Amino acid sequence: MLLGDNLHYATALTDPQTRSSWYLALLGLAEHFRTSSPPKVRLCVHCLQAVLPRKPPARMEARTHLQLGSVLYHHTRNGDQARGHLEKAVSGPQEIPQFEDVKFEAASLLSELYCQENSVDAAKPLLRKAIQISQQTPYWHCRLLFQLAQLHTLEKDLVSACDLLGVGAEYARVVGSEYTRALFLLSKGMLLLMERKLQEVHPLLTLCGQIVENWQGNPIQKESLRVFFLVLQVTHYLDAGQVKSVKPCLKQLQQCIQTISTLHDDEILPSNPADLFHWLPKEHMCVLVYLVTVMHSMQAGYLEKAQKYTDKALMQLEKLKMLDCSPILSSFQVILLEHIIMCRLVTGHKATALQEISQVCQLCQQSPRLFSNHAAQLHTLLGLYCISVNCMDNAEAQFTTALRLTTHQELWAFIVTNLASVYIREGNRHQEVCDWLLLIYDFPSSHCLRAAAFYIRGLFSFFQGRYNEAKRFLRETLKMSNAEDLNRLTACSLVLLGHIFYVLGNHRESNNMVVPAMQLASKIPDMSVQLWSSALLRDLNKACGNAMDAHEAAQMHQNFSQQLLQDHIEACSLPEHNLITWTDGPPPVQFQAQNGPTTSLASLL
To answer: Could you state one GO cellular component term attached to this entry (predicted)?
Structure first.
């Protein structure tokens, strides 16, 4: 460069108009590199860094620090530099006009970074301060309230989270945003359901329903509110074990998601900045509706339907995860797998269930938070698998570990119910069974779990030879399961009643129980109940002199036995079978191959 050119260059840099053009050119170039496919992060960072030495105006300097912090946070592992830039953006001069958005966005990002670095104590005061000074900026005030509420939720401080959501709902009402008020209230309702504060949930959901119906606005936003509302209603019914009562709500939910899928996204932004929120993307809502449908099908005993919707949901998830790394997708995937694993164990596909348990382990290895939220469920599933392959000591160890890890009331009751069944099968743990049954009896659990508890009491009385007492408990189970279409409990109760009548020599009444049990078990399908029912039908027909029917039932029993035996051998031969010994710490990464099955098959045959 010639001397004259240098002088011209130096003069240009001191001219404010020219200097502004430089800033804009560098920022534009940085944005071009950031939005390239794939993003050219290094070049983007260089352009932004080149802005700062040129002494830009304070507002532009703060925004540049925000942009650098954002790019480094989202696209690199350089957390220290990202934190430094974001902290400078947050602590910039307060008197700069139109600086608020920069400050609040930087505070939001910086709190995310603090949480990622496990510095939650630094994130909370940062968000609280930003909330205090953002009341004149509705969008950021609402967003920061949501963010702090989410942070308290992740820490399981649901009381503080509910308080913040209540503050947000009132603020949204004051600034005239009924849409965002509904979002705050529905979010609060979700947390109250988690806390099982049902007396507070009912009036809140009633108010939410009125707001959603009365709000006139963007059709997609309105339908998304309706989906949120209906999801809460459906999960509330399912948590209560009311599988039959939930059907109208579930049907409305499925119709609602079909309506949303036909609507086109409206590019027009809401006039109220407080309305600039969306609960979930349409694609995520579709997966969520599949998920609650699977939950319903599983509880009702429609396992083929559960399988169908699980396949659809997992296929959708795989497509979404190629483009979206949102943690909620992994949560959806784990919950879907948890339900389909239980289906596999019932339908006699233990080897597949075990491989899917291993898949859940792998997903949890990728996310400590996911493992923390699902560790108890994972050990519970392993306990159920252990029962299916007759490894009762391992089942007890898995259930005991799960009890230690959970604080969820319904899961606790589910684990205790299954642990009692393990003690009953072992035959020499009568006092432990009585202790657990007393706990289950006094526990305020769902309709489904109360019905299951009566079944377990009937099973215990059967093994004790107290047949009249067993019949009384089983009839109570039948009454409760028929009231809410709990098909699998109905099938189990019928076949056990049939067994009791067979032992008592009442073959006609036994047949009246076993035949519908077999029909229902075939519809589910429940392989263990089919095996049990076919054995009883064989013995009943033989005792009544019905040779052909006895032969047919014996053939069915042989077929079921062979299927279960082959699946048993395959499952116990898998390397993943060693998971049954894991009871502490994170899930193991690798599994040693088994030489062959080491468990007894007597209970199957």
So the answer is: nucleoplasm
